[in-house]
Amino acid sequence: MRAFLRFLKGIRAFNAVRRFGRASTYYNSKYLQIFKWTIQSKEDTNYTYFITDDSKLNIANAVAIATNAPVEQVIQYMEEAEGDIELKDQILKATKASDLTNFSDNEVRYGRRLGWYAAVRVMKAKVVIETGIDKGLGSVLLSSAILRNQAEGHPGRYYGTDINLKAGYLLSGKYKESGEILYGDSIESLKEFKQEIDLFINDSDHSADYEYNEYITIKHLLSKKGIILGDNSHCTDKLAKFSMEEGRHFLFINEVPKNHWYPGAGIGISYPKYK
Ligand SMILES: C[S@@+](CC[C@H](N)C(=O)[O-])C[C@H]1O[C@@H](n2cnc3c(N)ncnc32)[C@H](O)[C@@H]1O
């Protein structure tokens, strides 16, 4: 039998089919997910999804390393965000009231943004900027982190930038108290910005040069503990290179979507070298 199998494997065409079958087992479930998503989801862009437990744990560890904080605390903050029913209700309410309700799902899925939230909480960040906000899922989540910090005696403010005047409708209800949106080209808004920044998240124009220019524009504003989260780091090396130029550490952690065809993005993290 073994000899016969060895003989078959020696036939190039047979071997090609066998190897094709083996390799495709890694991707076949994706087609089912694509089919389900086509029927069930209304999202057209900036897809949202849950991420796997392993992925959450990896993100928590990366955030803990970059913020020099205990990982247990980071995990606790990620769980706090996911368990915040009031926040979820507000997001669903704002989604229903929006023009884009026909392109949104009736479920709140933060994905890697849970890591962004935990960074604000653990750092007690005073000033947070997110460039490129789309509907405002990151905006409202980050503003909720600031509200919680505030309630614990650590005031802060969120600033989002977007070129699209309709962006940011999810930043609503009480969450609007701790955040605001600067409309217009992101780099133009950043040039006018004068406050020290604890957390900067790049997620606007995803071209590599634009991303790099955002970092160059704000680098003099970064606080001593200032951290940059890059939402383009699964596609470009710009945050890694910027970090090397500026004598900062860099790490990248990917996210793994749960039951979704999208391969996932990740979080690039540029952080100071702690003594
Ligand atoms: C990927 S989405 C942002 C997603 C968002 N951060 C989130 O958490 O869901 C990118 C956004 O960047 C905005 N954008 C693109 N070019 C821009 C620019 N030059 N200045 C400001 N915003 C820009 C787009 O309008 C879009 O809303």
Précis, in short:
With 275 residues, the protein is an alpha/beta fold.
CATH level 4 superfamily of the largest domain: Vaccinia Virus protein VP39
Number of individual domains: 2
- Widest sheet, order of strands: 3-2-1-4-5-7-6
Overall geometric form? globular
Architecture overview:
It is a single chain. With 275 residues, the protein is α/β, with parallel strands linked by helices. The protein has two domains: 1-40, no CATH class; 50-271, Vaccinia Virus protein VP39 (Rossmann fold, 3-Layer(aba) Sandwich). Helix content is 46%, strand content 16%. A seven-stranded mixed beta sheet has the order 3-2-1-4-5-7-6, sandwiched between helices. Helix 7 (113-123) packs parallel to helix 8. The longest helix is centred in the first third of the chain and has 15 residues, at 53-67. The protein starts with a helix and ends with a strand. The model has no long low-confidence stretch (mean pLDDT 96). The protein binds S-adenosylmethionine.
